[in-house]
Amino acid sequence: MAVPATGAVTPRPTRPPRRTLPEVVSFLSALPGAELAPAEVSYAERSDAGWADVVITGISQDSRAVVPGDLYVARPGDRSHGATYARTAADGGAVAALTDQAGRGRCEAAGLATLVVPDPRAMVGELSAWMYGNPARDLLMLGITGTNGKTTTAFLLEAALRYAGRRTGLLGTTGTRIGDEILPSARTTPEAPDLQALLAVMVERGVQAVSMEVSSHALVHGRVDGTIYDVAGFTNLSQDHLEFHGDLESYFRAKARLFTPGHARVGVVNLDDEHGRRLAREAAVEVVTYSAAGDPAADWRAEEVQPATDGGSAFRVRGPGGIDVAVSLSLPGDFNVANALLATAMLATAGVFPEEFLPAFAEVALPGRMERVTAGQDFVVLVDYAHTPDAIARALDTMRARTPGRLVTVLGCGGDRDRSKRPLMGATAARHADLTVITDDNPRSEDPAAIRAAALAGAREVPAADRGEVREVADRREAIRYALGAARPGDTVLVLGKGHEQGQEIAGVVHPFDDRVVVTEELARTSGCHGAALAAGHEAGHGAGQEGAQR
């Protein structure tokens, strides 16, 4: 059944601090920054003495998620002002609101004690942390940022910490984990009230260490304000999210915010990436460096890297103090060697040393990250989240070295996201794969055909001699069916872009769709009749012809 796109429900601590309204006003008024004027409080229809007795026990930016005792943050949004929903928040039990002058009247009309500040978003991170008792101070906080590799590194960190005997929390793209409980995630990095509530719940449940992804959006919007990471890691930076940041320089500066004293104590930075080298020079905190290419200038190095017979990698890690250990990694590709090296360096910097956790790397499996789907077929099928030109190239190059036959890829581009990367994604796939099937990803509010056309245009710009076969199959299931039907013994099929996702968003509605499930279903359907499936895929009317010659 299709459902509207909505967020996940965030658990709350069972014993939150109780803050009076005057205490909240005092905290807001003391926040540093010349642009943050002292909070102005309006008392609407109640007396000053009455409002002074108000007790606040939580904070929410979503009127639908308000619970009794909440402070409702009513700030400007992309489509509407949060104050529009102040009445809903009040009906849900909110007792006060934090808003700007534009939202003041509607919050007062809803009967909420209204705190007026110039920019609510700029305050909500610090306020949320304080409201929930600054839970990050009671946790070992490990944060990872970068274009690609955040999720894998976060999983490696969590697996290593578990192996080393720590009770862990995980926050990221694929979900939230508190000990053994798994919760869905609406964002890579939660909004500040949700983040701090989750951290407070983790503290209540005895979590000792948290591994989390920190997105550039989160850094710009202040979602992690009020949180200081014991160790912050940087993977790499390549084109993505330019619909939000505008240009690569702004994107870099957003990532670099994590490596400042207000957000991190120590940074671990990739010297193999040009932006990592720049960050190592410019970071305002202590920096530890790593290099999967074995750069002798790096503090931590991966050397003697070899593909393993199980499809992963084997290598040695050499680090400070004469550390020299052998590593077996279950995940394929040099990019995953870099992720494992980053995790190792971050953990060692935090005081957890390789001998305590390295065996965990041999067993790690990630949902939708080079995830193999097997149903007895005589070719390899992998589902991966790669959705940037760089990630696509890395995934295809990794499997080229491990594939005796052809590389076949299914690829789409997300709607309402960086449009400039779409032709680059199409070109990258066409250049690196023998057959590329361009299809829909999450079109969101955009015209799916226009998105596909942009990717196809990029593919067509690749010279014919350097280009594999390119086809357009609009329906994603049909595209997967076509690719599987085209596969021969010894080939590798990579279904890219959505990875772990379990839905496809079209025109604001999320339809159930999991690439892994669809691949399994289509493998069963096409078993023993690849040729028939290939013909069916072509005759379905979705093909837009062939571009280039098969390599």
TrEMBL record:
Its cofactor is Mg(2+). It is an enzyme of class 6 (ligase). Residues 56-129 form the Mur ligase N-terminal catalytic domain. Belongs to the MurCDEF family. MurE subfamily. A motif (Meso-diaminopimelate recognition motif) lies at residues 441-444. Its main location: cytoplasm. It is found in: Cytoplasm. Carboxylation is probably crucial for Mg(2+) binding and, consequently, for the gamma-phosphate positioning of ATP. It holds the Pfam family Mur_ligase_M. Residues 368-499 form the Mur ligase C-terminal domain. ATP binds at residues 146-152. This is UDP-N-acetylmuramoyl-L-alanyl-D-glutamate--2,6-diaminopimelate ligase. It comes from the Bacteria. Pathway: Cell wall biogenesis; peptidoglycan biosynthesis. Keywords: ATP-binding, Cell cycle, Cell division, Cell shape, Cell wall biogenesis/degradation, Cytoplasm, Ligase, Magnesium, Nucleotide-binding, Peptidoglycan synthesis. GO terms for biological process: cell division; cell wall organization; peptidoglycan biosynthetic process; regulation of cell shape. One of its GO terms (cellular component) is cytoplasm.
